[in-house]
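Quick one: examine this chain and its backbone structure tokens and tell me how the chain folds. Here goes:
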Amino acid sequence: MPRRPIPRLAILAALLGSTFVPAQAETLQEALAAANRNNPTLTAVRAGQRATDENYNIQKASGLPDLGVTSTYTEFARTRPLNPLLSPRDLSTSLSLTVPLYSGGRVRNGMTGAKRRIEAGQFDVRSAELAIFSQVVAAYMDVIRGQSLVALSRNNVEVLEVNLRATNNRFQVGDLTRTDVAQSESRLSLARGDLKTAEATLIEARERYVQLVGHAPVDLQAPPPLPGLPASPDDAVEIALANNPDLAAARKQREASVYDVRVARGQRLPTVSGFVSGVYGTDLGSGSHAAAAAGVAGDNDSVQLGARLTLPLYQGGGPAAQVRQSQAREQQAMEQETAVERDVIAQTRSLFASWQASNEVIASSRVAVDAAALSLQGVRAENTVGTRTILDILNAEQEAFSARVQLVTAERNAYVASFSLLAAMNQIDPADFGISGSDIYDPSVNFDRVKGKWSDWSDDPAPLPISSRTVDSPAQSATISTDIKP
């Protein structure tokens, strides 16, 4: 299948404007690795999957032997009429063992259904990882874009302040009118408002980054190029339908619902079990001499064994209701699978279109940036000879500013869309982003660990928090490094 890599985004040149890399710079790979270890949403999903794993053992327990001991102590405080042969106290202990032999297939089908849901949960874990990774990439690029927009806005304010001072000077000597001064003041005020908006947006992006990654962003570097992107939306959809974890999870849920119907039908079938029970009783030496003389023993015991057949004849229509309910849920699972498939197709096509459109905007914006810079230079030169007005200069400066903002935004959008597209296709390999093999979470490992457990006492250690809190992290600011140039 033809693929082509994403064009190398000129983010480092356009956003950072410098080849200098700070010693404490943070990469996208490091951000993703931190989120993989420390994001509470992700660690909670993984814990939830471990809980789902135990459904297999819960279903399996219904088909295993049941062994129990019952001990009863009785004190006969009063007996009327008085029976000289009755002991005043009694202690009886019984040991019983029940072994299920046949349960209408409910245990087998319940275990198989639980296994399908566990597999669905494993795909859900993968989906959650891809969703968090996509959010981290968006937050990472939002911080880079926010820093660049603040730098552009501050530079725009500085340029307009210089223009206003020059306009005032020329007004003082009668070269310009009060209208020219007012126009310069108006543009400067708008630029200062844009700067405040850009600073607030940067703070919001940094706080979002802290929320997802667990620590504040530090000198974020340009992200790496993303290879392996599809050549057409049809290619993207084909790969997504074959690999998307949400769709795979919906398919497993639909398969599990088939076994729920079989479990419900099993309630109308007979059950067979074997049992062994032993009872030992004693009067604790409290028997009377009359009882001993009559041959009434103070201690007694018995052992019973056999098989039990239970054949349901009529249960008030409950089994049929549960069968119909399970069949309706099977239909629901079928429709949900189709709905997820539609969502995957729509999302994949939309992301492909967004990625392509952003690449086109990048190309046109670069031309616009160069043209606007040349135009601004020409308008300023023409103003010195009186063929251009102050308003022409202000308009040219605004066009240059807008073109650079559009370029920065398009580069952010292109990278986020391309990463999200790969995520929808399930083509993101954590190892490619610097996440070590030991940090890659494999949900099947826990299921393999617990599926063979049978002891009633094999608890896990008490859980402890994994992700860190951010309550003590400092509030983010709009301060940017001097190395970030507009």
